[in-house]
Amino acid sequence: MARTRVATMIAILSVVAMVGAGIAIAEMRSPTVNAAAQAEHPSLKYVALGSSYAAGPGVQRLTDKGCLRTADNYPHQIAAARGMALTDVSCSGATTANILHTPQAPHAKRPQITAVTADTDLVTITIGGNDLAYIGRVAAQGCANMASTATAGTVISGCRPGQRIRTEPTAADYAAVEQAIITIVSEVRSRAPHADVVLVDYPPLLDQHARTCAQIPLTAAEAAETVRVYNGLVAATARAAGATGVTLVKASKAGAAHTACSSQPWLLGFEPPSPYHPTELGKTGVARLVLRALRGDV
């Protein structure tokens, strides 16, 4: 089991253009949306598009090893709660291009958008972080910092100082993400004109003061940059939602009390099984937000 967790951690960081660090620890457990709920819409079809924050990487209940997609991610919890037929093509490492026109080799033979058909009733979208190397940058920084300060008894595999770290995105980069999300929504509507379309943004890794903790091995400057990049991503997603008129589920707002340094984190820190990615509590938290939005409770 320890080897499996280490391998999965390394794979997750590799998918975001990183090598990972492995420490075998127990996976945290948190409540899930009631999967035994009576089916609300047994004949309706739901397609989930997005990156790792939708795929929900972890070591248990993997449904797709290439994409590190799990059976307890927020799309699966939504489908179970509403009794919908789910096609989940979310994939760790995906960019907006992988949804629109570029297959995510070697994990997918077709762009994610091809899963959306005329009889689709619901589409959720969580995307944009990898276009900006949001988590890839943070992972590279943490990996380099841990490699240079690791003490005896700490097991870190693959981390090293001097790794290439992407520069901070520009205004043009954020504008490109905004436009790409607008294009995705337009394409979804073209393919499934009767579908409800929901944009789900990313929960925050750090609070707005860029406070770190033992689980977040970043310098003050790196933490501040992380918050700037995150805010730029959230703002681009919000602008795209406003431009297209789709529902925006703000995991960014609800997750502010559940950063990686909080007592009930929605995201892991730099730790297995999925560094800087949703915990079980986070997957359930986002699922509940989407379910509330679908009921109109926003």
Description:
This protein has a five-stranded parallel sheet with strand order 4-1-5-6-7, with helices on both faces. Mean pLDDT is 86; it is low at 1-11, 17-39 and 151-156. It contains nine helices and seven strands, in the order H-E-H-E-E-H-E-H-E-H-H-E-H-E-H-H. The chain is an alpha/beta fold and 298 residues long.
Considering the chains and any ligands shown, give keywords for the structure:
298 residues, alpha/beta, five-stranded parallel β-sheet, 9% strand, disordered N terminus, SGNH_hydro_sf, SGNH_hydro, Lipase 2, EC 3.1.1.3
Topology:
Elements: H1 2-15, E1 45-50, H2 52-55, E2 62-64, E3 69-70, H3 74-82, E4 85-88, H4 96-100, E5 122-126, H5 134-149, H6 171-191, E6 196-200, H7 220-244, E7 247-249, H8 251-254, H9 280-295
Parallel strand pairs: 1-4, 1-5, 5-6, 6-7
Antiparallel strand pairs: 2-3
EC number: 3.1.1.3
Organism: Gordonia insulae
Keywords: Disulfide bond, Hydrolase
Instruction: Report the principal-axis shape.
Output: globular
Q: Which percent range describes the beta-strand content?
A: 5-15%
Overall radius of gyration = 18 Å
Number of domain modules: 1
CATH architecture: 3-Layer(aba) Sandwich
Number of DSSP helical runs: 9
Question: Unreliable segments (pLDDT under 50, ≥5 consecutive)?
Answer: 1-11, 17-39, 151-156
Strand order of the largest sheet: 4-1-5-6-7
- CATH-defined superfamily: SGNH hydrolase
Q: How far apart are the termini?
A: 41 Å
Strand segment count: 7
Order of helices and strands: HEHEEHEHEHHEHEHH
Instruction: Name the CATH class.
Output: Alpha Beta
In round numbers, the mean pLDDT is 86
Main beta sheet = 5 strands, parallel
Query: Which fold name is given in CATH as the topology?
Result: Rossmann fold
Overall structural class, as computed from helix and strand content, comes to alpha/beta
GO molecular function: triacylglycerol lipase activity
Organism: Gordonia insulae
GO biological process, one term: triglyceride catabolic process
Disulfide bonds: 67-91, 143-159, 213-261
